[in-house]
Design brief:
Elements: H1 7-10, H2 13-18, H3 32-38, E1 42-47, H4 50-53, H5 55-64, E2 67-70, H6 76-79, H7 89-100, E3 104-107, H8 125-142, E4 149-154, H9 171-176, H10 179-191, E5 196-201, H11 209-227, E6 234-237, E7 240-241, H12 249-260, E8 265-273, H13 282-300, E9 306-311, H14 327-333, H15 355-365
Parallel strand pairs: 1-2, 1-9, 2-3, 3-4, 4-5, 5-6, 6-8, 7-8, 8-9
Amino acid sequence: MITPMNLTRRHALSSLAAASVARPAAALPTNLGAIGANHGLLFGSAFDREIFADSDYRALIKANCRIGAVENAFKLDWLRRSGPTADFSLTDRLVKFATDAGMALRGTGLIWNDWPPAWLKTLSAAEIASLLDRHVDETISRYAGRMHSWDVVNEPFFPPHHQSGGYRKGPWLEAIGPAYIARAFKRAATADPNAQLVLNEAFCEQDDLLGRAVRPRLLTLVSELKQAGCKLDAVGFQAHLKPHLPFDDQAFVAYLERIAANDVDIYITEFDIDDESLPDDVQTRDRLVAARCQKFLTAVLAVKRVKTLVCWHLSDRYSWYKSTDWYASAVAKLGGNPARKPRTHLADDQLKPKPAWAAVARAMEAR
């Protein structure tokens, strides 16, 4: 759930789902959900409305995922498009799908400062605060007892916004201040005392200026929420890996241990590989993506409090990189073909496993 660059990125699923699809491979070499379960890990993937139109992708998800994550439908701008009244018709279908499949389910991006609907911007600060309570209360209580976990607050920090404390700018911060975070967690705990409540963040796996700026702020926030008596069960790290940026996997592992010392679990919530800097040649690119997957996950999964690994889709067919306004230009800037298709996920757009599929399996088996 990296901050989107344009509207297309987040609303492309409906058109993708309508595209013609190919049959998947008859048999996958490894069942990732089963491997994860054998090593104390819930493995799964994000999905959304496309699973109802794409039967082959639906089968791939059901066969390999012990946990799913609803990519968009629980976000305010999807659930309450035209005003405060929610339309739960899609989320009802998605929750039923997961329940019928025997799959645990995560709700993502419940409170997020990005992508506020236009009508929200017309409200007063008091009305926005009241809406936060309503959105959390109604949404979580409706599915109480049926959800594994909620990303109650997503991406609280973004230092480039130049807000005090490095917080991400947006309606919740502007109306309530940083207290919106604890407020959301306290409401969520009341709405469903048994669901796992998660604080989800981006960038921390990067060893660049942004990643190093977010890490201490997030660590302090986790400690403050626990001290304030908030029910905080896990911290989620998105892990949209970027091989073109500096990284230090062992430094990130040490940071995860510091987070876990606050008596929280660790979730990897949106795993994929940004391949913009890698060569155009498909075999070379797939090999490098797989190598980065395996190295990162082998290090991270050694942390005992890591309990889930969720990919941000299993297949390139639904790669969000396809619909950004920056991927093609970034590839071209680095000397690649801007017309090439991203190969950012574990299976290709024909749903056939790539080397990254086996690399993730090996990393889980090494846990």
